[in-house]
Amino acid sequence: GGNTNASYNTTLHLYNNATVTLDHVTITESASRGIYLNAYSTGTVARLTMTNSAVENNTNDGIYAYGSSGAHQLDISNSTIRNNSNGIDASQLASVSLSNNTFTNNTGYAAYLSFSAGTATVLGANSGSGNGRNGIALAGSIGQDTTLPANPGFPYIISSLTVNSGATLTLTEGVVVKPEYSNSSHFYVNG
Length: 191
Description:
The chain has no helices and 19 strands. By secondary structure, it is mainly beta. The strands form three sheets. Strands 1, 2, 4, 5, 7, 8, 10, 12, 14, 16, 18 and 19 form a twelve-stranded parallel sheet that branches. Strands 3-6-9-11-13 form a five-stranded parallel sheet, with no helix packed on it. A two-stranded parallel ribbon has the order 15-17. The radius of gyration is 16 Å and the shape is globular.
C-alpha cells in the first residue's frame, strides 16, 4: 500500500537528539533524501543505527547528515545502499561505524564522511561497484585514535582530511588511499 510515486521530500527525518534503530527496513523512492539527520542545535547528537536494511532509489542522497552546531553518529551494518545520488553524505560526524555494507550504482560518492574531531570505530568489510566515486571519502578532522582497515577493491578517498594533534590514524596492511580529484584536497597530520 501507500504512495508508490516518488512524491515525498525525505522519507525519515532525525532532528537534534533523535535516536533511531532500523532493522530489516527498506527506505526507497524519496523525491529527495531517504534518511536525513539534522543535529542543528549546539550540544545535540542525532544517532542512526541501521542493520540488515536497504536505502535505495532516492532522488538525492540515500543517507544525508548535516547540522551546523550538533553532531551525528552513524552505525550501519549488513546493509545495501544503492541507486541514490550519494549513498551516504555525512558531515559533523562524532563517530561512524560502517561494516559489511554494499554500495552500488550511486551516481556520486558511495560514502562521503566528514568528521568534526570524531572517529571511525569500524570501516571494514565494505564493498561497492558502479558508484561515481567508488570508495569511502574521508574529510574534516579526526580527533580520536582511528584505524582504517582494508576494504579490497574499495579505497579510501582523501578529501581535505586533518588528523588532530594527539590523535593517531593507523592504516592497516592492504589499505588503499587515493587523493580526491580536486585542487583543494589535502591530508594534514598535526603533531
